[in-house]
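[Automated response] Your request has been received and processed.

Submitted sequence:
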Amino acid sequence: MAKQLTLKYNADQQFQLDAISSVVDLFEGVPYQEQKELLSGVSNDIIPNFPPQEILDEILLFDNLQMVQERNNDENRGSELEFSDELVVDDGMVLEVTGNDSIRVPHFTVEMETGTGKTYVYLRTLYELKMRYGFTKFIIVVPSVAIYQGVLKSIKTMRNHFRQLYDNQDISVISYDGDKIGELNTFASNTDLTVMVMTIDAFNKASNNIFKHTEKLSGEWKPYQYIQATRPIMILDEAQNFETSKAKEAIRTLKPLFVLRYSATHRDAPNMVYSLTPIDAFRNNLVKQIEVIGVSELGNLNDQILRLMEIKRNPITATVRAIVFDQGEAVERDITLRQGEDLFAKTKNPDYKQFVVEEIRFGRQEDEQFISFQNGVSLSVSDSMLSKESIFRSQIERTISVHMQRQQALKAQGIKVLSLFFIDRVKNYTAHDGLIKRLFDESFERLKHHYDEYKGLSANEVREGYFAKPKADSPEEEAVDTEGRTKAQREMEKRAFELIMKEKERLLSFEEPVSFIFAHSALKEGWDNPNVFQICTLNQTSSTMKKRQEIGRGLRLAVDQEGKRAENHDINILTVVANEQYESFVSRLQQEYIEDGTDAPPTPKKPEQGEVHRKEEVYNSEEFKEFWQKLNKKMSYKVEVDTNKLIEECVGRLNNAKFPSPLIEITRGRFVMCEYKLSLIATEGERAKLKIEMEDSKGGRFENEFYVQKDDDLKKVTKDDRLRGFKVLHTGELYGEPYIKFTNEVTVKKFEPYRFHAERAEKPKKQIEQADKTTYPIPDFITRTANETKLTKKTIVEIFKGIRTEQKEKIFFNPEGWISEFLSQIKITLSDHIVDNIEFEIDENVEIYDSEELFPEMVKQPQRELIEAGVAGLYDKVQVDSDVERDFIQNLVRPDVEKDNTILYFKFPPKFKILLPKIIGNYNPDWAIVRKDETDDKLKLELVRETKGGLKLDELRFPQEKRKILCAMKYFEKIGVNYRVVTGDSYDWTELTEPVQLSLETN
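Generated structure:
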């Protein structure tokens, strides 16, 4: 029986650790929650996260929020965060079915690009919150069955990984089912780390079982009350799906202690603590790079292209594919037209003069749908589809060809290649004579003979359509459009998604022949597979997905048969085969990133621009072979720790450290009910005059008149949190009656004011005082520090004993804050100590890298800036990652080549690492160079140069960069290679600190 593939996870990815600590550190100063004390305050043996009547200190949260934002900005963790000037708290009514209660809940936002491990981050955050603060009850809320299944699958595959990280700590998982309501008792009373996974649809309406009495639970409480009593911490997965007032009310109804929001894109991002944008992910090789192959109807843009793609109702519009002139460039684009509109005005293309829409007709059959223009030209959907077969065939052939080439290249590395097709209509695949299935089968059978991996397989063995299927005893296999909304279709959709999620590992294995996956609209958020290397978009006329959603299915870094992630960026390339021009696809993809509120990633380069080729004369030269032989040696290191000196340095740092002081907060507040009335007085052009009146149950009252215009936010204009969401969309007149519409879909007409109640918790009045010297139990910080630093417990005890008494005693009043600072100072000291004392050993008889693997004949580098390497380059082009590197090669190295001094040079591949202690991190040098000695051209100099923006190591952005360079100096000295840090204008870059010269006569 074949060994089952198991996905492996890397616990040390810094960007993920940064995201985790950004959340965990928000609660610094919150005391550890002892279960015995919590149990005493709640009935029904419920173990809550926090005492029943207490709330989190909002001033403490706000201070910590600003601290986290400032730290992340200072240390360049993720993208720059906007500094919060207040703590955003969601407050308001709960669902009516549970009474007239209201709740006040802080939300915190983590933004991470698709494919970077968002689920891993929030699951590990749960473990950290349990370890740091004793929190045990978590609810993960998801918007769809797809993500529901995906989360359950992730918990299952990551469980052993987390056990190893957290001293065998297990997690209890409850997959919420309204028909198994009794499990809520387990959730509420469990003493260990417990997580419940729910879809939003399970608790957002009165008819849900969660709001009904049941005999499956003892006592008089309804099911939702058990959840409320736990003070759960809620995680919103794909949080942008929970922005409606109904969803917000449902979330408040479960009375969470706080809410953590995770997504790649947020419409609303309260209290942002960490952001990893698409541009961060692409730049740092955390996701696959993208290349695009465009398959267009006509390659000659001088020929007129005009096709009717589809017609929509309500309102009736026609989408045509046309050639648009954009900043002087002709590109294909889909244009939406309404009655009477001029195509020339929308495209600036003179070929379309006199193309003014006369009629758009919608019919049930394709041949009944058409658009006619005033110049007599008429187009129908069925006519326009005549060219579809040739376009689809070309796309499918190209996808299969790229797939087979890539599989051939990656087979030796244990990586199975998958391709994903998004199709236009399910029947084009599932029908007996389905167009797409037929074209695929024909193309596969023709191409497979060129590739050993596929010669023995038939087309129907390697493809699978992921659509909803009926039960096994159904007389015939049938697929449905999984966007269907009948109960039967939803059940079929759920079964389909269970199949998808549960077979991820099988798809990654060479034991499973299926490697081509076809889908319609099912595989959106919540499904991806790390080994999707090709995405082919055949959904020409009825795509329900954005391009960004489509490519998101293939962004994850690939894994091999051991489940290990392949981090070589030359492997991790996603090829998109699009049914339109390359330029058109990229243009729209860029626009979607921008519309999602973030910077777009770098424009994908065309595949042919991203290939670099090895120069065999350089690769086979004696100079390269000798230099590479010297570099390619197994190395090890040893660090002679002067324990007494280390202890002395740690004690000195800790005696001067600033340990955080404990503060207490006295909070007073009461519930207040407010009634608001919004009236439109008049519209004046683009402005509108509004009147807001408010009365509350405390006797408070005010009214205010002011002008607003498009994009004005009433919350900011009035400085009233109750008006959050009232952002002006537009003003206008309907049948002569003025109105104003807001982005929350509220419309206020002149004679129809809008009223709403805001029953909510009053913002508490707060008083901060220095805490009395109350002592707290002390966790085992000696073991924790030993585990994280690899120092002996004896050494750590000696460090602790050496600290001044007044510094030591601070641990009793704020243990977690004290321990965090204690650990930080020891890590800094130990890192510096390692740099001072590290020594390298070289095994001359063992080579560690295969030169053919590190320097293949051809390398694809999409989205890299490539410059010509010149005659001495190992490849015809060289990749530069910064202006400093470009200046170094173009202004310094290339001129030295032209003087016949530099014989060869290359950039170290990312896989080449100098192994250093984990606390510092491995090092990948920049440039290897062989040149003649200027005083004696019979001697050669072997150089390694690190390019930085400046020569002062103390001014480098990250302290670990300096430590790595200092270690590298010792390493290269050991192997006899001259090593220096240079800048883009270091004209003395060839000078040696201590000349190392070798004879050229042996060549």
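Summary generated for your ticket: The chain has 31 helices and 40 strands. The mean pLDDT is 83.
If you did not submit this request, please reply to this message.
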